[in-house]
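> call design_seq(struct)
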């Protein structure tokens, strides 16, 4: 297991303790399996799309949840035991196993839509920065608060 010493960051970045938790989450994400395959696209400056290949799954088999800046996509497909016994494969290359895939979202990234079409799940995201967080120019000699 790799360990990363983040102590130099603490000297020059305020709030870098949050960075340490992101690095930890990223290292845990590396341990995930490669199933199902996915793409992450940049559609515009602040718009993204995650596309997952989930052939054989219906929209009822998929759960999409966002909690604490983590997008979790998982399946809960149940295979009918009777159907599984009747089917005999000469070659089985299409996986029907359940999965869980986690994506760490940046601050202010929101999930807009999720669509399932032709075996591909598309999840569209957008970063929406609130006005209070956008850069603003401060004039020298100006007062930011009226109550001073």
């Amino acid at each position: 297991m790799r360990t990363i010493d983040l102590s130099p960051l603490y000297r020059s970045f305020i709030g870098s303790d949050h960075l340490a938790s992101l690095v930890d989450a990223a290292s845990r994400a590396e341990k995930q399996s490669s199933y199902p395959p996915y793409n992450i696209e940049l559609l515009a400056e602040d718009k993204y799309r995650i596309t997952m290949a989930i052939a054989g799954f219906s929209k009822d088999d998929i759960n999409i949840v966002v909690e604490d800046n983590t997008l979790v996509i998982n399946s809960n497909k149940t295979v009918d035991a009777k159907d599984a016994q009747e089917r005999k494969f000469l070659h089985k290359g299409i996986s029907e196993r359940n999965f869980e895939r986690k994506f760490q979202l940046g601050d202010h990234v929101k999930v807009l839509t999720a669509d399932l079409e032709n075996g591909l799940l598309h999840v569209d995201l957008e970063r929406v920065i609130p006005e209070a967080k956008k850069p603003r120019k401060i004039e020298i000699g100006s007062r930011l608060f009226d109550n001073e």
